[in-house]
Each structure stands twice: as structure tokens, then as C-alpha cells.
Protein 1
Amino acid sequence: MKIQGKLKRLLIAITVLFLSFATGVAGFMLIEDYQFFDALYMCVITTSTIGYQEVRPLSDVGRAFNIFYILTNLAIFAFVISTLTSYLFEGELQRIFKRYQIRKIIKKMKNHIIVCGYGRNGFNVCQELDRLKIPYVLIEKVESHLQNFRVDKYKQAILGDAIHEETLLEANIKEAKALIIALPNDANNVFITLTARELNPNIFIVCRSSEPSSEKKIYRAGANKVIMPEALGGIHMAQLVVKPYIVEFVDLISGLDEMKLKLDEVRLTEIKPEIKHLSIKDLQNDIDCEVNIIAFKDKEKGFILNPRSDTQLSEDKVLIILGTNEAIGRFKQKYLQ
């Protein structure tokens, strides 16, 4: 629910209370010819049920009006008190203020990732993004699922349903670079993909599919990649038996092994101007370079594995490098802008 919706009940309570006092003041002034302050005093002692003596004895018409005013305000006063209690003592006002702060932080985020759903798949996605320290916004509609989720400078969370356009806008989808949809319902995933593609035509969308028949529909909706976790899990289990060393190597270069090696990509559009004339050999021979360039992607030829050492760097290439987190960090700090 948006902040405006949460404040609606409070605004209604304040408006009803104001109208009640306005009606009472007008009634006492017209019927009993009270001055404004005397009429307001009568409204306060009547509404609060204190029972002080009237300013002066009421006429029969004034008593009839007062009876109507008392009975009406019993319900109004109960509604106002319950509303104020929920906001002041049950933490509703604090939750609204916290959500307002989160919205301000998310509004400033750029090139972040949006994750839809915090179930089993969404949880693992967030764990990996946490490990890589990549900024992201999580959207989850079940409040209890977010009890153990802790926000920090890299991650924020929104309580809402991603199928609603306003929720995606609240996650600042127009400034996001990628969207990961990890929900179990394929129909909802198609709808979210369509909405996201309309809001941000350039966003990279990775979507989960539970049924093979939904894969083509999700692609047609605008997804860049469709993942079926159950199928991947089955393939992985078979590979563990048939090709255990390959799986072990893949785990090694995925950062899951104790050596903490990982693959990373370096876009040469971000490389420093003074080294754009260098070749792969020049980078590999640098004594400070502790990463291996195992491939690059060419705009026309696609991926080139084990590239020639005399390959010149150019902005249309993306290097695939292998190394520890520390080595990759030093490489980027030295060569990237």
C-alpha cells in the first residue's frame, strides 16, 4: 500500500472531527445564539463527555440538537480515538515515516537491480547480490517474509505487489539496469515482464518460469532470459554424477569454493583512455595484473575463448576475466575510469 493510502484513514478521521466541531458550533450559534467561543466550549465538553454545566440553559430545540449531537459524536469520537491510537501507539506513524525515508533513498538509486519475490529463489538471488555487494531493491508482498531482511546502503525493500505498476515505479524501475522476477506464478511473471518492458525499454529482464509451456510466452512479453530452476537443478544433479570434476571447476570459478575465485566482465568502454592502445599481452605481462583474461566478446564474432595475446583492446569488446575478488578489484581500479 502506498504512503498516501496509509495516511488516508488519518486524514479522514481529522476531517470528520473538524466537520463535527463545525456542525456543533454552527448549531449552537444559530439555535441558542451563542458566541463563537461559547459554542466551541459546548462542543468540546459534549464531545469529550466531560459533562460540565452548559454556558446557559438550553431551549427545547437546543436540547434536541444536543441529544442528536451527542449520539452522533459517540461514533465519531470512537473512530478518531482508535485511529489516533493506531498511529501513535501501535507504530503506524513510524512505519509510514520509515517507508517515506526508503522511498527517498530508492529515488536516488541508479543502475541498480530490482528483485521481485523473496521465496526460495528470490532469497538465493539476494544472497548472491549481497555477496557481490551489488545495489538492489527487493519487492515482496508478504510482510512476514521480510522479517529477517535487513536493509543497508546496498539494498532496500518494498512491501508491495510487483504486478502493480506503481510498485515498480516506487522501486525506481526507470533508472534500474536489470529486473529479476523470481515469483512462482507464471501468469504474474508475464504481466510483470510486460509492464516492466513498457516502463523501461532498455532494462535487462531475467524471469523465472515454472512450466516449460510458459517459456515462449515470457520471452514474447519482453524477457531477455528465462530460467527454469527445477530443470537446472535436475541437470546439475546429473552432472554431479556424470562429470563431477567439471561441476567442481564451475563451483571454483563461481566463487563458491574456498579459493574464492570468480569470473567477472570488463567493458572496454570504461577503460582509461591512456591504455586503449594496449593489447591483451600488455595487460597479462603487467606484474600488478593478477587476473587471467580467458575470453572476450566481440560485437560481430561473439565470444572468443583463449584470445590471442596480440589482440588489441577496443571499445566494442568485453573482457571475461578470472581471479580473486581482491585481484579483480585491483585490476578495475588500475585500468578502469
Protein 2
Amino acid sequence: MKVNILFSFKNGPSGGGNHFLSLLHSEYLKMGIYENDPIKSDIVIVNSYHNLIKAAKLKNHYPNIKLVFRLGPIFYYHRGNIWKLMDKFIIALANKIADGIIFQSHWSLAEANKLGFNAQKNWRIVYNTAGQTFYRDDNFIKNHSKIKILAASWSSNKNKGSGYYEYLDKHLDFSKYQMSFIGNSPVKFKNIAILSPLDGKSLAQELKAAEMFIFAAKDDACSNMLIEAMAAGLAVVALNSGGSSELAQFGNCKLFSNEKELLDAIAGLVVSVDHRSGLGTAVTLPTPETVAREYLSVIDQDKKATECSFWLVLKVRFYISLFVLIGKLKFIYG
């Protein structure tokens, strides 16, 4: 069996999808089953809306190749109603040409059902996971006097939690805490330090040097950043939204729904600076190898592969082109 991931990998600072798929790629290389050429592969993993035209053309020319669609985010919640067209299109295309579908959380599945997902397809819920780089050594020593809190987002979208971070900037007790935000923020802070987006190794170092992680993104399917913070042994305070509430099972995590609950959750996790080594807890995340194998197990090897007609390829190409054009016109004319 040979596996390909139909995705353009990036080096340096990047989003959670790139982090996770790079980890998946590494696992398949270790297993000796990764194939760089999708044409020579038995299974090709398609990520969300990326390379849908290529996926359709591949299925049309090589119908025996089986496609696994990785679905999770619902884009119109973050990017506006125009993206609901794309969300529905992704689900409709997966219904037709996917041989197996991975949802990143129960929340993702529930949202896909609202958009017309065909539950008769082979599907499975598989949470993302973190690489060994993010796990903290038990002997890791902190050398700061205040309790160190981190938050992060590569996106400056307001639904990524900027309102809550702005609230903390005004109301957190900075005589007791120090807080840094890593990534791109749409607001300026007075007390919270801002760090530029970091690559995976540097991000891991920052996480392992902290005690607590705040995750305030709304309607997030399965945040890699949240998972990586848990892997690093941080206590986590997360917005009770999207798939984040499901991820709470993997670490020392308190959920919040409003600003008061946010401050109460932070206080509830902290006893004193002297006890900060006990803030985090051992996590029970699935190993990368386990997750990599689960992605393949969604495929029924005895079932005939799906097909993609030439007309469906044209339809995909037309729809994607039309969507891009609408996006450009919306950008120009508002």
C-alpha cells in the first residue's frame, strides 16, 4: 500500500493544518508507505478545500485510487456567508468521490450533517495529535517569577479570540501573571507581549517554558495549537465552543463561556507560584502512529472505489473558478 497527501507543505511558521499533515507525512515515511507521486499511490488524503480540482482529475483518470477526505473547519463561521457555498460544495464533493472521510471532531460531523453530509459513506472521527517535539521533559526548569500564560493564533480573524485577549490585557493581574500572544493579533495590547509567528520547533520551546495556555477561538474544529499546548503539559483554559470542549478530555482543562468565567477559570487552575509545576498534567493524546493508521483504516479495501466523471471534473473546475471570482469581486467592491 502506498499513501500520498495531496497538500502543498510549507516550511517555517504555518497553521495547524500544515503542522498536523507534516506530522502525518513523517509517520507514513517512517512506515515506508509514503509515495510522493499521487498517481502511483493507492490512497490519497485530501485536506478540506485544498486541491479539489486535482483530486477530482486524479479520481477521473485513476478511478482505482481511493480518496480520504479530511474535514473539520466550517469556514463560513470565520470567513463570512459567502464561504457557506464552499462548505456545502466540499461536503457535496466528498459525498460523491470520497472513499472514506475523517472528521476532526464530533462537532465537525454534526456541522457536516447540517450541510448535507451523506452518513452512508465510510467515516470516522479522528482527533489531531502532536509530535514528540512538543512534549516537555519532566526535568524542564522554569526560571521566571510570575506564572507565564500563552495564547496564540496565526490568523487575525476576530473569531480567533482577540476580544477575550483584549479583556485579559485590561483585567488580568499582571503582578501575578505574565502573558504573551504568539502570532497575528488584530488588536494592540498594553500588557500582553506579542511575538511573531514561530516555526514548530520554536513554538514548542515557548510552550514548554510556560504554565498555562488560553484558547479563545470560536467554532474551531480541532485546534492543533490547543493540542500542542496540552502535549507540552500546560494547564489550559478554553472557550466552550466547537470541538474544543471535546479536547478537554486530554489534559488539565477548564472551559469558559464569558469573560467572568475566563478569569475564574484562570484563578481556579492556579494555587500559587510555588505550585505552578502542578498546573499541567500528563496528557492522553493518541500517538502520531495511531492517528496515521486510523486515517487509513477508514478505507474499506473490499469495497469498489468511487468514480468521478469528466463532467464532474468540469463542474468542480467551474465552481472553484466562480468562487474565486466572487471572492475577488467582493474584495474589490466590498
Protein 3
Amino acid sequence: MVHTRRRHTLGIIAALFASGAASSVLPAAAQTTGQATSFPSRPIRLIVPHAPGGNSDTFGRILAQKLGDRIGQQVVVENRPGAGGTLGSAMVSKSPPDGYTLVVADNGTHAIAPTLYGAKLSYDVFKDFTPITLAATFPTVIMIHPSVLAQNVKEFVALAKSQPGKLTYSSAGTGNGSHLTVELFRAAAGGLDMVHVPYKGGAPAVQALLAGEVQLSSVSVNTALPHIQAGKVRALGMASMKRSPALPDVPTFAENGIPFEADSWLAIMGPPGIPADVATKLNQEIAATLSQPETQERLAKIGLVVVASPQSGLTDVLKRDVAKWGKAVKDSGAVAD
């Protein structure tokens, strides 16, 4: 009788597995492991929340091509610009948490925006996203027009203090990273009194400096390099923790006793609730892709330095930078339109 009951029970279990009904009673860990094993089984959407042509777009397209080759699935780049990148980011925050929709986030969309937009921002950068990886950084250099009577940062600080309210600086727009980088510099240098002249984009802001309409501006190294090499501008200092290989003779501001850094960064994030094993697989595959010599070489040409952090590394950077850039926004008085 006991053997008959055992055979009957085993028969029921076998039937459950055959019908697929057993999945409802399997432990959650077993089911999520299955998700990671089969992921990805269809194309991944990579949302670039800015217009084509910028750093995040170029980075996204390089990553999409190389990652797609590695995982055997197409990675499709979609540009969803608007409101400083917050519209595309918001869309991703509300996407299904299956790992098939990701965003190329940056310090503008996820470190500056919380303070700049305040209650207008429709997402919480900590609660409404799954961090995947801090992908890359691009160092920032502050440069001055050759007509400025200062050969180094100490001389510039002395000049600015002797002429309060007379020196001007350009930016790509109020609340933009180029604006706030100079705000961090002004504060770290003892509260320099300078006049901000915002432009509608990075190109006209740089052109204003080249034309001598303003005395100072901050841009990424790859943007500044040809102008520095041509002698059209002079590098004042690196707003980074270390010198740039592209400008090895330009010291950091910290080396000159002005401790601040304003590196910009690019990260990969997804909507909240992506299964842990899928997020881990995405982190591993993206990190492996970014570590390929060819990928690093292509990114280096646009001034990007690969980081490929663990997920926790991105969370740590967010915690640090939301506070840092938030203070810069408040100190500048910038408010989003």
C-alpha cells in the first residue's frame, strides 16, 4: 500500500513538471536563475536621452554595436531628447523591468537634474532605476582666452579677485555641466566674482571664448584639445582628480591648492525591479564589452575613459554627485525653465 501511494505521488509530480505547472511552486531563486540563463532572447533598446551627435549618443552607438556582437542580439539605439535628457530617462524609469530597455544616463540627468528640476522631475534617481554600471568618464578642462593676463591658475585667481565682476565665462546653458563646473571652481577658489554668460549649446559657448567675447569656459578634453594645440585658448587646469593623458602637462586644480573635480560621466541604468541575476548579467556583459581593446580605443578618440564599475560603484557615485552637483545648482541660483 505504501509503495502504491509513493508511485501515485511521484506520478502527480511528474505530471506537474510536464505541464509546466511546477513553475508556480518552484523557489523564486530557481526561476530567476532561469531568466538570466535565457537572457537576452530578443533585441535590447538602448535609450539615448539626447539628440544625435553628442558624447552620450556616440558612446551609445559604439556600445550597442560591440555589445550586440558579444551577446548575439541586436542592441537598438533610440534617441529620445528633451528637457536636458530627463524625458528619455523618465520613459525608461516607467518601462517593464525585464532588462530589455536601458538608458545612457549621465551626471546631467541623474546628478544635476534632481536639484535643478526639483519637484518638476518625474523620477527619483535612486528609487526609479536599477543601476547597471558606471561606464565611462570624460575629464573636463577649464580654459581661458590668450588675452587674459594670467599664465596659470594662481595668477588667474589673483586677477579675478583684483577685478570683481569684470571677468566673464560662457556655458552651454544655465544649469548645464559647463556652467556648474565653473561654479565649483569659483567656490573652491574662494568665491570668485565673475559674470556668467549662458549660450544655447556647447558650440556657441566655445566660439564665444575663441572670439574673445568671454574670458573663460569649461569643456571636455576632446573638445578643448584642438583649440589648445592651435594656441587659440590656454588650458588653466584639469577639473579632475588626475591629469589627462591627452594633456599631461596641464595640472589639476587640486595640485594648485584648489580642491575640486567636475568630471562628467556616462552610466547604464534600467527601470526599477530588474531581476538581480539579469542586472548582474548585464553588468558583466557590458563590462566585458567596454574592456575590449578596440572598444576602449574608439571611446578614447572621443575623450572617454572606461570605468565599467560594479553596480554598487554606480550607486556610490550617485550618492556623492547628487549632493555635490546639487550644492553647485543651489549656489548658482540656476532653475530649470
Protein 4
Amino acid sequence: MTDIMKFENAQNIAVVRTDKLGDMVLTLPLVKAIKSNFPDKTVSVIAQSYCKPLLKNSDYIYKCFYIDEFDNGLKDIFRLEKFDAAFFPRPVFDEAIAGFTSGIKLRIGSAYRAYSVLFNHKVRDHRKVSQFHEAQYNVRMLESITGANYKTELIRPIIDEIEFQKIQNLLQNAQDKTKIIIHPGSGGSARDLPIEKLIAGLKAFANDNNFQFIITGIATESKICDDVHQNLQHSLNFCGQLNLDEMIALIEMSDGMIANSTGVLHIAASLSKRVIGFYPNSPHISQKRWGPYGTESIIINPPIDENTQLSDDMSKIDSERITEAVIKLFGKV
């Protein structure tokens, strides 16, 4: 039986993505492509539990399974739920072997791993070349089976009213201002713009009452968040104060975001917010593969240099380019 016949016969499909928040945002277009084009199939997502706010109540997702809630992770999930096909956008050996030993008939993963023999449909995309965006690479997994082309579209997270109400209360004095989230860290997931560069780029707006800057980050980033807050008069500092549901509601109620290459930037893109992003130049970590997808954005990179280290040195970014980007994307000083 051919792979396309196996897929056509598959009713219960799993998409496995168990790494970071932004990776899940960029994997959901695959889920949407499957469900939109094959509405009779059920699509379940297997993820880490911290991704719940991205997945809950989605029209495209049948069930969610969270590997950190099972003693034996993916092995237990595959015993509990009988899947006919499973997509592995970011294959790791333990997950590939779990799919193989569970007897899933169609297992879709990269052709370029030492353990690719565990997949019986091999996708021949070298992602590190960054010919496509990560979201497109994920949709291309489906295209590699069917031979058809599908839209690559992010999925908007569903936000509960209780989160909206909390954020509305926090922003009650900023209703008429342009609300811009500043997310200065990345939780170690990216090469960050040095905080002094960010501060220098935003100093022109320190006393501008047209903007309400809102600083966010995880608790361990409190030092850099405090540094930004101290240099931006009237800014709000919510660092370490919001859970992910509340953060998503805040993004929805904002006008845009300034951030490094990190998960919340991709959430902002999924909510069609304007984004200023800071990225190195090497293709595998650049905006070509990891930039905000499908939304209005300005990307700021270091100057290109023959020396790759210098080309990816975020400290080489001119802070004036940040000032110019804010004016262009959000309005005049």
C-alpha cells in the first residue's frame, strides 16, 4: 500500500511536538492544514503541558495529550490511543522508537536522522538550510505525502473571558494609548539583543504619552525587565506576574510587540499583531526560518560580515534602528 493510500485510510492522526512554545505555534499550521483539507479525519496533538493555553478549545484539534502527565510519556499515550498515522516534525529517537514499536501504520519524519529507518514516510527537507520558514516546513510534511499544496496559516489561540477581564483591569489607564509589549529576554531560546542596546533604542520614547510600554518576561528575567522599566517612564512592568493564559490575553489587547526570537513573538504573530524582532543572520537561526510568520513586522539584524560570529553578534545592532522601527511601525514620537 502506498503512503498516500495509508494516509487516505488513516482516521486518527497524531502530531507530536514536545519541545518549546514557539515550536508549537509553528507546528499548528500542519494541524490546520490536515483538518481543513481532510475534515473527516481527527487530529490530536501531543505536547508538553505548558502548551495547554495554545491548544485548548481549538476547532482543529480532536484531543490533546501531554507527555509530562504520563509516567512513560509517549509510550503510554500510544498505548492509550490507537493512531493510524503520526507526524514527527522534530524527531527525537525516543519518540521515533515509540511510534515504531506501537505499530502506527504511517509514521512521518525526517529522512536525515540516524534513526530515520523508524519512519516509513521520509520527508526529504534539510531544515538547517532554511529554504523555507519553520511553519512551512511543517506543512510540507503533509504535502510530501499527498503531492498537493496547502496554505500555511497560524492558529489563533482561544482566550477565556476571565483572562480578558484581568488584563483589562491592569490596563485600565492605558485604553487610549498605543500599547507595545517589550519582551527583552528569550528564556535561553535565542541570541538576545543586549539590554543596553534595547534601552538606547527606546530612550526617545521615555516621556512619550502616546505609548504605553508593557514589559514582560519570566521571573528569572526580572533584572533585565527592571532595567528597561527604570529607563522608560510610565512603563508597566509585569515581569513574572502573568501565566501563559494571561500573557496571551495581554498580547491580544496590545497593538504589538518588541522581542527577540522567542515563543511569545510567534504568539503575537498568530494574533496578527505588529512585531519588531531581533535576529542573527545565520540561516538556521535567522528570520527566514524563525521570523514572525504572516504578520506585519520589522526585523533588525546585525550587519552582515564574512566572519559568521560577527554576523550573528547581536551587540553590533545599531540602537537607532530600533528607534526608527518603532516610529515606522507604531507612529511618530
